[in-house]
Amino acid sequence: MIQTILPRYKTTNNLAYYKVGQGPLIIMLHGVGLRIESWTAQIEFLSKNFTVIAIDLPGHGESSNLASSQIGIAPYVEQVSLFIEELIQEKFIIIGHSLGALIAINFAAQFNHKCHAVIALNCIYQRSDEAMKQVQLRAKKIALTEIEEVAEATVERWFGKNSSDQLADICYQWLQDCNIEGYIKAYNAFANVRGASDSLLALNNLPVAFITGTLDTNSTIAMSQNMAKECSKGTAKIVRGAGHMAQMSHSTEINKLIESFISTIKLRIS
Fold first, then answer.
1. Distance in angstroms (rounded) separating the CA atoms of residues 60 and 227
2. CATH class of 9-127+195-269
């Protein structure tokens, strides 16, 4: 399966992005090791009624690496903030997947006056000590292991042991071709946080939808439900049979959930 590469624009600090469509603005942030094209199905669907901007996170796709040596979510939130400051004059809906979901939640908590709503796909929350240990071990192995082996193990976690379908192949190729420095920095940021904090969730007075799949062992159903309870306007949506890459593997269901959620805040974005 040949994956279409979307054309990019660049900001002054070399953050790459793709823009398409007309209407209220949606900004999309992908997860670790991915790129703008992981949102292809959502971009095609949403751009019929919205302006969609998808960003390559620092060190991913065609974006430059983070200059900061700080490990954590904050440097990524700062880059998104600089992007908004440079290019965006209107309020928007922010959608994130995995690491991108954490960035979106952190951004919205700090700059909720700039957002209409947040949609967080496959977001983590209150990881157990054992889960933290396992993901940190994987982060350490990345720098010591051939990228082909890392890619194979990652795709298996995302799509299951029988990960021989076309979407898994595409993700495997993205990981093989990744900017290894950018990948390691992002993975360390993801590995050293337990998830969205209660304090940040409580600060967020926006409508927030948490979406995950029944087969995602990384971002569980309970995590999404509990995060929704911590937000004053939170809701949790579950996709049956979906794992960590629901936006790709179950794109029709994800698109419908996004559309339905946005319809509930339509008066806010008209």
1. 27
2. alpha beta
Alpha-carbon gap, residue 47 to 51, rounded angstroms: 6
Tokens representing residue 40 in the block? 């292809």
Give dist(CA 182, CA 42) in Å, integer.
Answer: 24
Between helix 147-159 and helix 129-142 the angle, nearest 10°, is: 150
**With contact defined as beta carbons under 8 Å apart, do 64 and 14 qualify?**
yes
pLDDT in tens, 89-133: 999 999 999 999 999 999 999 999 999 999 999 999 999 999 999
User: In a 10 Å sphere around its CB, with 0-12 CB exposed, 13-18 middle and 19+ buried, how is residue 71 labelled?
Assistant: middle
In the chain, where the domains are located? 9-127+195-269
Q: Does the predicted model carry a pTM greater than 0.90?
A: yes
CA torsion sign, 45 to 159 to 104 to 259? Answer: positive
